[in-house]
Amino acid sequence: MPKTPIFLAFFVDAVGHVVYTCGSSFRLKGRSFHPSSCYGGNVTFQVGDKVIYPNHGLGIVERIEEKTILGTTCGFFHLRIVSNDTTVLVPVANVDGVGLRKAITDEEVERLFTLLSDGKIDNHQNWKGRFKDNSDKMRTGSIYDMADVLKSLTFLSKSKSLSFREKRMLDRAKALIISEISEVIREKALAVEQRVDEALERCFVVKAKNMARTVSRSKITKAVKAVPVVAAPRRAAARAS
């Protein structure tokens, strides 16, 4: 039996206007709606849980209730996004589809700082490839993927000017990481930002040292290959006595 299509997620602004996050648009009762056919997922959150909504950051589950929209009845998580006090309604059955997850733990915060300072940075030379990869990482909602974006774009910004879209992505990744860490360890955002900046600086120092070693090894290898091989002189045959 086919499953009933439900909605991906939508926002409710201060005056009660509903805006869906994706799909084609049509009008109903004087408002624009954007439906999406998505299935699956499990109830994994309770009222009061702190959750992360991809690309929007930390939210609080304020209530869970059923709603009937366009003839479809399903449960919704009501999330309040902390950064801008926006309400987001996420279908209970589509938690996995939107990438909703719980905030990281204290132990994961330390793992994150280790990742931020490890010196491993991937950078595409091609702008389109780089932007696509980074956009895909931002959409996963994983804080570790966002850390990769933060490292690569910050490192790139030290050698060239970023495009407007990449600069906005860099700022977004940094803000989302700082806000989540700040909430988890209960430190002010400015203090967390300083720790993040220090971790990034350590990362770039390690990266520079690794690059210097690679260049040095390359030069040594080339020098060794350039040395001509001189054949050892043959010993004169012993004269017959």
Give the count of structural domains. Answer: 2
Taken in chain order, the helices and strands follow as EEEEEEEEHEHHHHH
| SS summary, helix count | 6
Biggest sheet features: 7 strands, antiparallel
Examine the coordinates and then state which fold CATH places here, giving the name of the CATH topology of the largest domain. Answer: Methane Monooxygenase Hydroxylase, Chain G, domain 1
- The CATH architecture of the largest domain can be named as Up-down Bundle
- The CATH homologous superfamily of the largest domain is called CarD-like, C-terminal domain
> Percent of residues in helical segments?
40-55%
Mean pLDDT: 77
Unreliable residue stretches = 1-7, 11-41
Helix and strand content put the structural class at alpha+beta
User: Hey, roughly how much beta strand do the residues contain?
Assistant: 15-25%
Count of beta strands? 9
> Which word captures the global form?
elongated
Strand order of the largest sheet: 2-1-8-7-6-5-9
Query: What is the C-level CATH assignment of the largest domain?
Result: Mainly Alpha
> Ends: how far apart?
106 Å
Radius of gyration: 27 Å
